[in-house]
Amino acid sequence: MSMSWQTLAGRLFGPQHAITAEGDFLSGTACLDGRIITVLGTTGHAEVGLELALAQARVVLDTVARHPGRPLLLLIDTQGQRLRRREELLGLNRAMAHLGKAIDLARRQGHAVLGLVYDQALSGGFITSGLIADACDALPEAEIYVMRLPAMARITKLPESTLRELSQNNPVFAPGVVNYLRMGGVRRLWEGDPAEALRQALADLTPQDERARDGASRGGRRLAADIIQRVLDAA
After folding, report:
1. Which pLDDT tens digit goes with each residue over 180-200?
2. 174 has pLDDT over 70
3. Quick check: 110 and 160 in contact, CB under 8 A?
4. Taken in order 72, 20, 3, 49, is the CA torsion positive or negative?
């Protein structure tokens, strides 16, 4: 059973945190071992639309401008981008790209950025948040999909039965947090005390992107790291 953001925040920071929810948007600050952390993210299986993407980006950019070096924690619970004509006409793709670029800017300016999937993560709402952080961790009970198998079948024109068979041995075709761990998209699962897991996660962050290396060592993405290295060697 998934954990509510209120329960998670309490276990991470105790009752004195200043994280609040405005609809499906989470934001605020909290303190861990005397260190202030900016917290932002989503709840309620949020659909990430224009307003939600821009609100998250604003928190990231305000932190970069006003609090140099402060860590950011992204709490992720989303069903993906909002699939509405209004969003498409007003440029949801640009708003989500803006969020991704804001997170990338924070990383380049020396902010440690950690993603945590505490409930579910789907599609663009995950790609432009947790997957752009320095690292993305998850609770063991979290659910992660970039695309569900029925939708993947419609896009690839392959029978769903074929994709289901492929998913038995290939994590690229298989949803679930364990498969994203194998592919390196998720760095680790948080077992035990969440506060201690957060403390260790922040201590282990590195500006180097280790997803491809992790995917290779775990057998989930066997070629990406080698191809990346060959491109770098040829540059």
Report:
1. 898 898 999 999 899 999 999
2. no
3. no
4. negative
Determine phi and psi for 144, rounding to 5 degrees. -130, 130
* pLDDT at residue 126, as a whole number: 86
Cα–Cα nearest to 188, from 99, 117, 123, 111: 117
How much is the pTM? 0.89
3-state secondary structure of 53: helix
Helix H, strand E, coil C: the string for 143-186 is EEECCCHHHHHHHHCCCHHHHHHHHCCCHHHCCCHHHHHHHCCC
* Residue ranges of domains in the chain, CATH in brackets: 5-206 (3.90.226.10)
pLDDT of residue 117: 96
